[in-house]
Amino acid sequence: MARINFGGIHEEVVTREEFPLAKAQEVLRNETVAILGYGPQGQGQSLNLRDNGINVIVSQRKGGDGWERALADGWKENETLFTDLEEAVKRATVVQYLLSDAGQKEQWQKVKKNLQAGQALYFSHGFSIVYKEQTGVIPPSDVDVILVAPKGAGRTVRSNYLSGSGINASYAVFQDATGKAHERVVALGIAIGSGYLFPTTFENEVFSDLTGERGVLMGAIAGLMKAQYETLRAMGHSPSEAFNETVEEATQSLYPLVGERGMDWMFAACSTTAQRGALDWSKRFETAVKPLFELLYRDVQSGVETKRVLETCSAPDYREKLQQELDEWKNSEMWQAGAAVRSLRPENTKS
């Protein structure tokens, strides 16, 4: 493993230089990987594995968008695509359990009764294992239990792979029944297209992931954007001006530069007026939101968040209520303005 200095803390990571794809292919040469669920992660990971020469089959319920996407992607019914989850588990040596968290709880008994000694049970999220009191997911002792968690959406797992860049991922071994769980998990991480792999635990992965999703990855940033947009509108600014100053400039100009160069570079590269204001107000925002992040982490750690997720997502009318919530965002003035702004980007107006 390579030893890398992360801000003064040295960590060991796995890179593709020391564990190349050829090595991963050799480790997985006799494995059959079953992808359970063809959502974004299932789709992205399965296609990358297939492109990298790994023997892959997919299980997805018939009907609906997932089934149609699988067929469009070239999976063949009753050959590499199965409606029967139990059959897929029986055919596999590695079972990638990529259903939604609520779906994993619902389908666990079917998976568990078909697991065989020596198989690997693979997750991309620590949810079901860590919150076993809520999910009931307790694997038998004779299977490897491993995790590879890409640090991005399933669509990015695929698009980054196709562009040749890969995406970073964490990995963990919860249970090593065969003595080869570590080699298996690293090989799978490389084979799904990870740029590099860093070690974690199932607990640390789910605690950080749930906090991040609710925080700066989506929840907090959506709330901040909405608050600024509505403040500008209330002060008389037009929808296009409010959206451009809140979202468009951030996502199209500043955030890509932060990702490429870092926040320190961004502070140094902007005007002195922006620099002074950003440095001063960043401290005020940090002071204001730090208690909220601490509360969020405690709720994740204690299971308050996961209990709510499982109860809400398993309700029979969940999809209808979810669509109502999504439509509220889509139909709001802010994001209708956003649709108009995006349509006017130069790349979208070329004749």
CATH class of the largest domain: Alpha Beta
How many domains is the backbone divided into? 2
Question: Main β-sheet, in a few words?
Answer: 10 strands, mixed
CATH superfamily of the largest domain: NAD(P)-binding Rossmann-like Domain
Mean pLDDT, all residues: 95
Measured on Cα atoms, how large is the radius of gyration? 22 Å
Write a structural description:
There is one protein chain. The chain is of the alpha/beta class and 351 residues long. It folds into 2 domains: 2-200, Rossmann fold (3-Layer(aba) Sandwich), CATH 3.40.50.720; 211-348, N-(1-d-carboxylethyl)-l-norvaline Dehydrogenase, domain 2, CATH 1.10.1040. The chain is built from 17 helices and 10 strands. The protein has helices at 21-27, 40-51, 64-72, 85-91, 101-114, 127-130, 132-135, 154-163, 181-191, 202-217, 219-234, 239-261, 263-269, 272-302, 304-313, 318-331, 333-343, and strands spanning 2-6, 9-15, 32-36, 55-59, 81-82, 94-97, 120-123, 144-150, 167-175, 194-199. The chain has a 10-stranded mixed beta sheet with strand order 1-2-10-9-8-7-6-3-4-5, with helices on both faces. Helix 12 (239-261) packs across helix 13 and helix 12 (239-261) packs across helix 17. The termini are far apart.
